[in-house]
Amino acid sequence: MDESERADVAVAAAREGASVAADYFRTDLPVEMKDGKTDVVTRADREAQERVIETIRETFPDVTVVGEEEDAPTVVPDDGPSFVVDPIDGTNNFVRGIPVWCTSVAAVVDGEPVAAATVVPPTGDEYVAADGPTRLNGEPVSVSDRIDPEASTVSPTLWWDLDRRDEYAAAATGVVERFADLRRYGSAQVTFGYVASGALDGSFSNLRGNPWDTVAGAHLVRQAGGRVTDLEGNRWRHDSRGVVASNGEIHDELLAVARETEAARN
Question: Would the pTM count as exceeding 0.90?
């Protein structure tokens, strides 16, 4: 299959999972905690992931599917095809009734994303990219062309646990001292979609993100003409420490903030 066909599978799977999740949104849904007070999960997450995987396996019955919930593999293989799934990215928003969450699916070959789809049911938006430009609701989009950090809006993303709030504070301080404004949405994949479409100028974290939080979004940003690196400024990949995604114009300034955030680790 070529990238456009893989993208079709990713889109179909993301839509199916998003439909399952949307049926539970703003309902009386029991919430469970996984590894911490802010790490929550619901039946909607599990059932949405099941639907995504079922949809993928209709075409790729034996492919590795990396996912957040249950017993799915958690590591992206460096050889061969795979898919990476986040059934609900932004579960904390989801359980609070905040309409910023999505279902994301990325198709990967030899460790590199080749297609991605992020479906955002509350807004009806779909971000899709294969080997051509990123599309938002079927129309090509691109990263912003802002070159002045003081006119740019960026977002710290991923999540610093309660014992790492010095890093969170450093990230916020670095943004407000260098850029026009800060946004934080609570969904990394939605945030990457905003960068890809030019709504945001950049997003960053010093953390090593889970692949389901990052891989699809990184592909969307790159195919929209943006730049995605690790903390060293090297090309980002699924196992990199830190992720810095931007329109390219403000990347060095954003990279400096990410490094300042990392320096606050101790």
Answer: yes
